[in-house]
UniProtKB/TrEMBL annotation:
Record PROSITE patterns: HSP70_1 (PS00297), HSP70_2 (PS00329)
PANTHER family registered for this protein in UniProt: HEAT SHOCK PROTEIN 70KDA
Job description of the protein: Acts as a chaperone.
Annotated protein name in UniProt: Chaperone protein DnaK
Species of provenance: Candidatus Dojkabacteria bacterium
Length: 632
């Protein structure tokens, strides 16, 4: 069997590692670097595919055929609001696929984001094989903790396309914690602060007995090193304009040089107090060539970018709140991502938590190292201590029932893998031939306010009265976070299922927003839920009253029949008004109908000599509006 490697497939850069004699080691790529830009391109001259630093280096001259930040699109839908903005920002061409996904124009072909990511992974595989001198066929790949099922599935597919057997998809913060071997020092709560090239994530984890549990995650999918670079570029452009009166923003080639210089200056200022930026022949005017030269002090840069660092703490506060943890309860702060090398970032993190952050493992490599250690455990490497992973679902999962309610099967923050079955689902009308299972994700009680992850139909239901068929619905999430939903007709044994591979997407921002919205709307939602319940109950009483009339036609007097029928009609007419239905009126009508039904029911059984008969209504019992959860 070939080697298993651990891969940190990043938005801007990737890193990969393996384990030898129980020790993790980062793999150097063919260019001799320990990180590899997650960039793919089609070379203008040779028309061949290139990946990594060579692709990144020709980005300006070949923008339409240089593919970067593809991780922002993996497993997502074209029409997703958070994707739209990103699609506008990238220079390569994209379009909506026939299934609503994203396609990228790659040469003369249209490919999916996972196919592009696969090309980065293929370079990683090839470079690792060259480094190790043996074949690599297995991998553990990391993803952000907030990635949803479809993003995880798409990442797994990317690995498969690249010829890798993806043994496990694990969360980036979990991998970072594994790299630190934090499980060895007893139970503790840790914060993983990850500031990379394009994104910021923070996670709160609980660790103990070799178990890692992600308690909460938060972050900003559009905050990273690139924003710091952009601030410096803007500063350079302003300075040049002041001095020379020329706006470099109009000149793409000059801008690319400024971008490279900005990143270089930012990195240099992590280890020195000032740096020289020197860009000869940056542009020219009628008087001749112009050069850009300036001295940038660390203190000046810090003023320019300080608010960007401060912004990360909004997410940190949110993550602490979601995990129900005070910052003083955090035992370790683990730093991940190249940007955490910036002294100001380290200092502000230290100030916030009141303790020295842990930076002993290289922040660019820590995630890959953790993934490699997990890979070694999965391969049965006896020299690596056993590690168990416990990740959690970021949002609740359930299905739509009772004309618009969210019925949760797996609550938010449930540890995965997990499986949950319920068999209290039934039909809403007589002879209903099929049920449509609408799989939902979110925290709101009304289905319409949550995300639809997918819908499937279970048909072939044998003709039966409403409420009689019984369905079992099972939600199963595997260790990679991939969701499978199955519905089974308990009468016929017929089954139908769906694996959520094209789910609606949820960026971390969106998760936070949804949770917040659920809190804010709690009282409004409660009111709406009550309205819905009044309507469902009214509908159910009409059903029971009609059943009573049918089942006991011979025992019910004409007068009683007319009274019940009139009430039924009044309720039906009111329900037919939909959203305009008068809820108070429905409540009154339902109560009146219920009383009448009790009267009629009592009379029927009295006449029958007090014996309990066949059907599901018992003598003198109050009619019951609870019939199980109706799936339409
Ligand atoms: P990552 O996505 O984790 O690879 O982080 C990449 C980001 O870290 C880029 O914006 C880099 O410019 C930045 N970076 C890398 N090294 C340093 C450093 N020594 N000081 C400041 N920023 C750095």
């Amino acid at each position: 069997m070939g080697k298993i490697i651990g891969i940190d497939l990043g938005t801007t850069n990737s890193a990969f590692a393996f384990v030898q004699a129980g020790k993790p080691e980062v793999i150097t790529n063919k260019e001799g670097n320990r990180t590899t830009p997650s960039v793919v391109a089609i070379d203008v001259d040779s028309k061949s595919e290139i990946a990594g630093i060579t692709a990144k280096n020709q980005m300006v001259t070949n923008p339409e055929q240089t593919f970067y930040s593809v991780k922002r699109f993996i497993g997502l839908k074209y029409d997703d609001s958070s994707v739209k903005k990103d699609l506008e920002l990238v220079p390569f061409k994209t379009r909506k696929s026939s299934k609503g996904g994203i396609e990228i124009q790659f040469g003369d072909k249209w490919v999916t984001p996972e196919e592009v990511s696969a090309k980065v992974l293929a370079k990683i595989k090839a470079d690792a094989e060259a480094f190790l001198g043996e074949s690599v066929d297995g991998a553990v790949i990391t993803v952000p903790a907030y990635f949803d099922d479809s993003q995880r599935q798409a990442t797994k597919n990317a690995g498969k396309i690249a010829g890798l057997d993806v043994k496990r998809i694990i969360n980036e913060p979990t991998a970072a914690a594994i790299a630190y071997g934090l499980e060895k020092s007893g139970d503790q709560t840790i914060a993983v602060y990850d500031l990379g090239g394009g994104t910021f994530d923070v996670s709160i984890l609980e660790i103990g007995d070799g178990i890692y549990e992600v308690k909460s995650t938060s972050g900003d999918t559009h905050l990273g090193g690139d924003d710091f670079d952009q601030r410096l570029i803007d500063h350079f452009v302003d300075e040049f304009k002041k001095e020379q009166g020329i706006d470099l923003k109009e000149d793409p080639a000059a801008l690319q040089r400024l971008k490279e210089a900005a990143e270089k200056a930012k990195i240099a200022l992590s280890s020195s107090e000032q740096t020289e930026v020197n860009l000869p022949y940056i542009t020219a005017d009628a008087k001749g060539p112009k050069h850009f030269r300036m001295t940038l002090k660390k203190s000046d840069m810090e003023k320019i970018v300080s608010d960007l660092v401060d912004k990360t703490f909004d997410s940190v506060r949110q993550a602490l709140k979601d995990a129900g943890v005070e910052k003083s309860e955090i035992n370790e702060v683990v730093m991940v991502g190249g940007m955490t090398r910036m002294p100001m970032v380290k200092n502000k993190v230290k100030e916030f938590f009141g303790k020295e952050p842990n930076i002993s493992v290289n922040p660019d490599e820590v995630v890959a190292v953790g993934a490699a250690l997990q890979g070694a455990v999965l391969a049965g490497d006896k020299e690596v201590d056993d590690i168990t992973l416990l990740d959690v679902t970021p949002l609740s999962l359930g299905l739509e029932v009772n004309a618009g309610q969210m019925h949760v099967l797996i609550p938010r923050n449930t540890t995965i893998p997990t499986e949950k079955s319920e068999d209290r689902f039934t039909t809403g009308v007589d002879n209903q031939p099929a049920i449509d299972v609408k799989v939902l994700q979110g925290e709101r009680p009304l289905a319409k306010d949550n995300k639809v992850l997918g819908t499937f139909r279970l048909d072939g239901i044998a003709p039966a009265a409403r409420g009689v068929p019984q369905f079992e619905v099972t939600f199963k999430i595997d260790a990679n976070g991939i969701l499978n939903v199955k519905a089974k007709d308990k009468g016929t044994g017929k089954e139908q299922d769906i694996t959520i591979t094209a789910s609606t997407q949820l960026e971390q921002e969106e998760i936070d927003k949804l949770v917040k919205e659920a809190e804010e709307n709690a009282s409004k939602d409660k009111e709406e839920m009550e309205k819905l319940k009044v309507k469902n109950d009214a509908d159910s009483y009409v059903f029971q009253s009609e059943k009573l009339l049918k089942d006991h036609a011979d025992k019910i007097s004409e007068d009683q029949k007319t009274t019940l029928e009139d009430k039924n009609k009044e309720i039906k007419d009111e329900l037919a008004k939909g959203d305009d239905a008068d809820i108070e009126k429905l409540k009154t009508l339902s109560n009146e109908l219920m009383e009448k039904m009790q009267e009629v029911g009592a009379k029927v059984y009295e006449d029958a000599g007090g014996a309990t008969t066949d059907s599901d209504s018992e003598s003198g019992d109050k009619p019951n509006a609870e019939e199980g959860e109706v799936v339409e």
